[in-house]
Amino acid sequence: MHTERVEAWLKRIAKPGVETGQLMLAIRGAAVSGYKEAAEPLRALVVDDSRIFRGSIEEILRTRPDIRIVGSVWSGEKAIEVARAEFPDFVTLDIEMPGMGGIETLKALRALAREKRREIGVLLLSAHAKRGAEITVEGLQEGAFDFLMKPD
Q1: Which stretches of 1-152 are assigned E, i.e. beta strand?
Q2: If we measure between CA atoms, which residue out of 143, 147, 119 comes closest to residue 25?
Q3: For residue 28, which of 58, 57, 54, 66 has the smallest C-alpha distance?
Q4: CB contact burial 9-40 (16+ within 10 A = b; e otherwise)
Q5: How far apart are CA 105 and CA 142, in angstroms?
Q6: How far apart are CA 116 and CA 12, in angstroms?
Q7: What is the reported pTM?
Q8: For the chain, what percent of residues have pLDDT higher than 70?
Q9: Which residues, other chains included, contact 81 with Cβ-Cβ below 8 Å and sequence gap of 6+?
Q10: pLDDT digits (tens, 9 = 90+) for 91-134
């Protein structure tokens, strides 16, 4: 994935100062059920094997005083570790990752949420979400709130 493509995608979904950016709307929706109180920032976990893309998502989230990043990891295994320790309100989750993939990670996050009797909103991110519609549908059936396309 090239930096220019990531930057172009980010400009399309999250324009500075515009509340209705696609990413912020999706994150808000994904976090609604786990949102504690309006005064508390949403606790975010960013999961993506692409360091560039992970960094770009973090950069967007850090501009928001109502969101606090509790972790940024490159694998499903690490995501579960951080989620157990920090219990995020929402997770941005890449579908395609080596090792524990996004769907397996999603299932583990949902099991953790049931165990803790709390909700974790999950927003799937993938370059394959449209072309690989089957995996996207599976993710939504497994409890993800929504999905966003990454640049090709």
Answers
A1: 42-47, 67-73, 90-94, 121-126, 146-149
A2: 147
A3: 66
A4: bbeeebeeeeeebebbebbbebbeebbeeeee
A5: 11
A6: 36
A7: 0.77
A8: 70
A9: 73
A10: 999 998 999 999 999 999 999 999 998 888 898 887 765 555 78
Distance, first Cα to last Cα, the chain? 7
Best CA proximity match to 64, nearest among 41, 91, 34: 41
If phi > 0 it is left, if psi is from -120 to 50 it is alpha, else beta; for residue 87 that is left
Tell me which amino acid residue 38 is.
Answer: A
Residues listed for the chain? 152
pLDDT under 50 in the chain at which residues? 1-3, 6-7, 9-10, 13-20, 33-36
CB atoms within 10 A of CB 135: 19
In angstroms, the CA 127 to CA 96 distance is: 8
**Which residue bears the tokens 């549908």?**
137
Q: Tokens in use for 49?
A: 């094997």
